[in-house]
Design brief:
Number of domains: 1
Number of strands: 8
Radius of gyration: 16 Å
Order of helices and strands: EHEHEEEEHEHEHH
CATH class: Alpha Beta
CATH topology: Aminopeptidase
Strand order of the largest sheet: 2-1-3-8-4-7
Length: 199
């Protein structure tokens, strides 16, 4: 099975993104996966990942993003057709109260078996929850664009994982929850393997 795993570049003035750190950890051991680092930019992120999907034609797409303040991995269930940025993206754009795609559904739902994946991670000792809000920043936009594309072609599964900050970031933010990169990588790997029936 062809699997695409995406992450985001650092944003908001940070030099690290926990999703990118997780992909770095996995890329050294998982040669069977395809990796993509997305720009944290509203106008380009969706285009970049859809272009990659169209050329690669993966059966499974797992998107990773960073969610500062969360203490566990979030398996995102819903993507909203909405943009409302609390901070500017990496191109300095800050959309407010705008839709992503006109004449498209207000919300789309992941087609991964989230409840089963959540139980698998808990059984492995990994902190995880199912989330019903992927926010309204670039993460949500990418999630929505990919789910919209998946609904059109009908033969691709897709899901989004929000990760807490990693240990490197916690050195400068001692009061913010974090998750070690090796655990985030283990969780991502377990989800991929369950979805591809390796476990």
């Amino acid at each position: 099975m062809t699997v695409l795993l995406s992450c985001f570049e650092p944003f908001g003035g940070d030099s690290i993104n926990s999703s990118q750190e997780t992909i770095r950890a996995l890329s050294s051991t998982r040669r069977d996966l395809h990796f993509l680092v997305l720009p944290t930019v509203f106008s380009r992120a969706g285009e970049v990942i859809l272009s990659k999907i169209e050329s690669l034609k993966p059966e499974l797409v797992i998107m990773l993003g960073e969610a500062s303040g969360r203490s566990s991995i979030s398996l995102e269930k819903i993507a909203l057709n909405f943009m409302d940025a609390r901070i500017p993206d990496n191109d300095g754009l800050q959309p407010s109260h705008k839709v992503i795609e006109e004449n498209r559904p207000l919300a789309l739902q992941s087609n991964l078996p989230l409840e089963k994946l959540c139980r698998a991670l808990i059984d492995d000792g990994i902190p995880v929850t199912i989330s019903y809000s992927a926010g309204t920043f670039v993460c949500n936009l990418v999630f929505y664009e990919v789910l919209n594309y998946s609904a059109q072609i009908g033969n691709m599964r897709a899901g989004f994982l929000h990760l807490p900050l990693c240990e490197k970031q916690a050195l400068r933010r001692p009061n913010v929850p974090f998750l070690q990169t090796r655990i985030a990588a283990r969780a991502t790997e377990l989800i991929i393997d369950r979805c591809t029936r390796r476990q």
